[in-house]
Amino acid sequence: MEPFEKVFIDVVGPLPRTDNNNVYILTMQDDLTKYSIAVPMFNHEANTVAYHFVTSCVCLHGIPSMLVSDQGTEFLSRVLAEEPSDAGGILNLRHFVDKDQMNWDTFIPYAMFVFNSSEHRSTGKQPYELMYGRKINMPNSITKPPEPRYNYEDYHIELKQKLQLSHQIAKDRLMEQKQKTKEQYDQNQNPTNIHVGDRVLLKNNARKGKLSAKWLGPYEVIELKTNENVTLQKDRRRITVHKNLI
């Protein structure tokens, strides 16, 4: 995986309308480095989102191989006129915005500076450092004398080596984080003791909307399979499902 090969995109809002007539924030985050971009927008129509995505992301970092959005496939289809390969989450900037302020859009560059210059929990590195191969210059480091540079070729080789090492460390940290998350999830799963004759509820995977029932039933357990499946019966209807759905 390379920087900006996979990008998460999302729209935050509506927020209080600013003096510049902005109501929404378009956020874009690189999956590997966690480097993030945020752009204020006066609406969230497809043409507006596409314009800011191209000018603020594609023109600077190239076209991502994969674009992921919490807004779902319909959102990405309207923006890019093509079907995306996945859907997911992205950086949420709501905690940077005071809803009572009418000039929140002017603070977005500063909020992104803080985010990209802070160590990210998943990678253990600054997003800026993973993106550019060096830590960002902060006010307390501006007064330091500059380090000598040899020549452009030496700098290019050194930068490439730093980026390769940093990207590998970031990948390893992401894998460790995913493994820890999986282990925590597995620990929280309580084994289900089911016996023939039990009356159980079945998880409603076809649920549509928050008002639909989460569980169906009750069903009677009439058979335990050897592959963690069970056969349930309600009235004259029989179904076989996995134990995790009960």
From TrEMBL:
<feature type="domain" description="Integrase catalytic">
    <location>
        <begin position="1"/>
        <end position="226"/>
    </location>
</feature>
<dbReference type="InterPro" id="IPR012337">
    <property type="entry name" value="RNaseH-like_sf"/>
</dbReference>
<dbReference type="GO" id="GO:0003676">
    <property type="term" value="F:nucleic acid binding"/>
</dbReference>
<dbReference type="InterPro" id="IPR001584">
    <property type="entry name" value="Integrase_cat-core"/>
</dbReference>
<dbReference type="GO" id="GO:0015074">
    <property type="term" value="P:DNA integration"/>
</dbReference>
<dbReference type="InterPro" id="IPR036397">
    <property type="entry name" value="RNaseH_sf"/>
</dbReference>
<protein>
    <submittedName>
        <fullName>IgE-binding protein-like</fullName>
    </submittedName>
</protein>
<dbReference type="Pfam" id="PF00665">
    <property type="entry name" value="rve"/>
</dbReference>
<dbReference type="InterPro" id="IPR050951">
    <property type="entry name" value="Retrovirus_Pol_polyprotein"/>
</dbReference>
